[in-house]
Amino acid sequence: xxxxxxxxxxxxxxxxxxxxxxxxxxxxxxxxxxxxxxxxxxxxxxxxxxxxxxxxxxxxxxxxxxxxxxxxxxxxxxxxxxxxxxxxxxxxxxxxxxxxxxxxxxxxxxxxxxxxxxxxxxxxxxxxxxxxxxxxxxxxxxxxxxxxxxxxxxxxxxxxxxxxxxxxxxxxxxxxxxxxxxxxxxxxxxxxxxxxxxxxxxxxxxxxxxxxxxxxxxxxxxxxxxxxxxxx
Length: 232
Known about the structure:
The protein is an alpha/beta fold. It contains 10 helices and 8 strands.
């Protein structure tokens, strides 16, 4: 990453990057399908549907992401969100090395702000981060329903840049080129590219099969590699 300016803002994805939420999401989808008297899906199939927000996850699980009757989608999505709110912490855990990496970044670069930008609905995202104590590292946490668009649209990332600049208005503005998006899927890599930011891809997450085609700037195999990869 030496062809880029020094990082001044770090933005992290949540699912598959900071936390492994795969089992709780899969269980919630299959509970929804059972509620609708539909057959369950293998966890691996459901996991491949994660990354574009709750609505698209349910659309895919129902079999046709391009067309689902409004009434069916409303019922399915409503049940899913209700069930997931109650079960979002049954099996979810923070990846090994995440706290150590975040502490190392904060110790070495205390003036670099960090935030979360996920396509998960914002309330469970914030609740999960608070539960595990991740929230103390981040000045903001935005979800897939925080804006009118989701990743890979760059709106949320650009909003976070603006908010980070507002924290220190006397300093020179942080630019997209000084911003790094860390995530586990092509959605995150494309979000960074669409904003003019840099990207770090996490192969340990939920969608490693999508990363190569997206061509991230840097790839890591574990969270503990973040400090050296980001600030190389």
